[in-house]
Amino acid sequence: MFALYKKEMQSFFYSPFAYVLAALFMFIFSLSFVPSIGSMDSNTLKFSYPNIFYNNFFYFIFLIPILTMRSFSDERKGGTEVLLISSPLSVFKIVMAKFLSIATVFLFMMVVSLFFPIVTMVKGEVMWSSLICAYTGFYLWGLACIAVGMLFSALNDNAIIAAILGEIVMEGFLFLDKFAATELVASYPKLNSVITWFSLQRRFVFFSQGLFRLEDLVYFLSFTAVFLCWIVIAIEKRRWSRS
Amino acid sequence: MVEIKNLTKYYGKNPAVRGIDFEIRDNEILGFLGPNGAGKSTTMNIIAGYLPSTGGTVTVNGFDITEQAAEAKKCIGYLPEIPPVYPDMRVEEYLNFVAGIKGVKRDDRKAQVESAMDRLRITDMRRRLIRNLSKGYKQRVGFAQALLGNPKILILDEPTVGLDPSQVIEVRNLILDLKKDHSIIFSSHILAEVSAVCERVVIINKGEIMAIDTIENLEKSMVANTLLNLKVEGNKDKVVRLLKDIRGVTNVSDITYVSTNLYTYKVEITDEDVRKEILTSFINNDCNVVEVSMAKLSLEQVFLKLTAQGKKRTSLQDLLSEDTAAPASDNPYDNEEA
Prior knowledge:
The structure holds two protein chains of two kinds.
Chain A: H1 2-13, H2 17-38, H3 49-55, H4 57-68, H5 70-78, H6 81-85, H7 91-113, H8 115-123, H9 128-155, H10 159-181, H11 183-186, H12 189-198, H13 200-208, H14 214-241
Helix pairs in contact in A: 1-7, 2-4, 2-7, 3-13, 4-9, 4-10, 5-9, 7-9, 7-14, 9-10, 9-13, 9-14, 10-12
Chain B: E1 2-11, E2 14-24, E3 29-33, H1 40-47, E4 55-60, E5 63-64, H2 69-74, E6 76-79, H3 91-101, H4 106-120, H5 135-147, E7 153-157, H6 165-178, E8 183-188, H7 191-197, E9 200-205, E10 208-214, H8 215-223, E11 226-233, H9 236-245, E12 249-259, E13 262-269, H10 273-284, E14 288-296, H11 299-308, H12 316-325, E15 334-335
Parallel strand pairs in B: 3-8, 3-9, 6-7, 7-8
Antiparallel strand pairs in B: 1-2, 1-4, 4-5, 9-10, 11-13, 11-14, 12-13, 14-15
Helix pairs in contact in B: 3-4, 4-5, 8-12
């Protein structure tokens, strides 16, 4: 399994792929960072890193499918899926190796973005506790999205279509909050609570407030686990019904 | 070594493989023949554990391919039809990776990769990106990959496709060499290749086994079918009558008009001595023989005939004897100057 993980990492880091994506991530980050730090007056509370994450979810969502789109689509297209599946590795291990490698690239992107807090730290003060919490929350959110993106890659031969479908579904999850806030849904408190319970964004809000709740951690991890299992099932199903 | 029992595979409602049985014995090279779409690749994919079967069992070295997949897959080296290579990797890097996923111990990896590269003569290419390799080299990298982990069984799906003639010979020799410590199943639609390396062949068509037999039997049956192409000046009916009078002529067919009183005939004879008799008879009866050539039933044609048949046969011998008895309506022969 480590061999596959290593190979995946090489495919990201031996090509410009990981670096370009990290640059894009930083670019989106800076689009919010620069104006907000520029317009900052004496009230330091106005500027916070969690807000940058929160306000840019929409844009960050576009990054993740780009990371995940090739994971299974390309294997199938290039005929290398045969190699992986006919190797002694189980499908679960293949999925895990790929997931972990993408999670590592995502981690790399986040580590690179630490540049901003570090610069801030030089000239001012950073609330590290809130920052770490926000980063953790954002990373967990990212893991969940990676699992969703990989599922669509496993379902589609075409990487671009996999990316677009993944984006639509992730945007859908983002929309849950707004959907729950509509008058119609809000008038049914039970339905509202069910929908908001599933909202990824709302869970992130707790992290951004510096609240590290076990419930949210379990939610994100189980969300990811469910999608990873789904990928395994999707691949197995494809093998059975390939036509 | 490998036992395939009643193997069935459906793609949706379409049967790809219908209840086939055969075995691959220890240190044997088994040829697997069939036209495109016969179910060769499907069968090989199932044996290699890539596709699950709809019914039946595949046992590899005592392990069931679905029940004990990991153990069974460790005994298999598979070269699919399209070599499963990553274009962005370098040859050596790729082989190291494959050795890794096959569970080759870290200490053995280097030695195994070296020996595989050496066997396939790709050592010079070790630093090259696979993307930049020619088709033949990609095929060899794919082959090298199958050798890693020292699998007891090698499944080779058309291993010589895309190779130049000298490489084909090299690969053939390699396969023969590998026979010492591997059991090999090897598919192809080039029969000459199969006859050069395999002891036994399985001929499959439309998902069913048409014949399982040794190459010797196949060749024996071929010798029994010799064909003369004649161009004779003289009355058509007279020529046919003369031919039919000779013992050893089993069939006259494909009489074509060339010019006035000049026709070509295809004459099936039991052995080559009959030719002399035919020619003597023509000379004695004032028929001017313009051209004589001998044609042998080529392996390709045997194969085509076999796969064109709907019925299942126990051996090639049966099929071919049946075949010669029936008048040949089509032209199943290849010309070869005598």
